[in-house]
Amino acid sequence: MDYNTSEICDLFADSVDVVNPIFTNFGGRYSYAGEVSTIKCFEDKGLIDKVLATNGEGKVLLIDGGGSKRRALIDAYNAQMAVDNGWEGIVCYGSVREVDILEELDIGIHALVSIPVNAEHRESGDLDVAVNFAGVTFLPEDQIYADGTGIILSPEVLDID
Predict the structure, then answer these.
(1) In-domain check, residue 102
(2) Contact assessment for residue 142 and residue 153, using Cβ atoms and an 8 Å cutoff
(3) Confidence of residue 47 (pLDDT cuts 50, 70, 90)
(4) How many domains does the chain have?
């Protein structure tokens, strides 16, 4: 399904939060939506790989990478793993790499910037915790709706059919 965040904001202005426009879309899917799963980590993609190896149907992985622009948390390997396991999208408050491959994959990926340096793989961080960045507090099980215009958050599934 294609989502139009502008129309969603018009219809549900009082019940959604708009994420500050700091992200770039690096994925091959223009729009996506799903239930939020959160990871809080810093320059370490071990937990990210572990979570993306699980069933992600109907879900969006939201990564609080501390806004780091020094190490990529998402690369072609873990993005392909996300596709293979049915994830709808990834929002990364951090960096990505191998962007030419990412744009060919059928998944939405929003991140701050790209950098060629890979992150560590120690599995440090926290899963399914509240995280706050880009003017919004994200909770596990919230709903994200994203497209080329922006990203919005709702505490519940919106009836937009």
Answers:
(1) yes
(2) yes
(3) very high
(4) 1
| 99, containing H or E segment | helix 99-102
CA distances from 20 to 24, 82, 126, 133, 135 (A): 12, 25, 23, 9, 6
Percent of the chain beyond pLDDT 70? 100
Backbone angles phi, psi at 158, to 5 degrees: -95, 140
Average pLDDT, rounded, for the chain: 97
* Angle CA 5–9–12, to nearest 5: 130
pLDDT in tens, 22-40: 999 999 999 999 999 999 9
CB 56 within 8 A of CB 89: no
Determine contact, residues 120/44, Cβ cutoff 8 Å.
Answer: yes
pLDDT surpassing 80 at residue 152: yes
Closest CA to 6 of 136, 157, 148: 148
Q: In this structure, is residue 95 part of a structural domain?
A: yes
Provide the 10 A C-beta neighbour count for residue 39.
24
What is the C-alpha separation between 19 and 35, in angstroms, rounded?
16
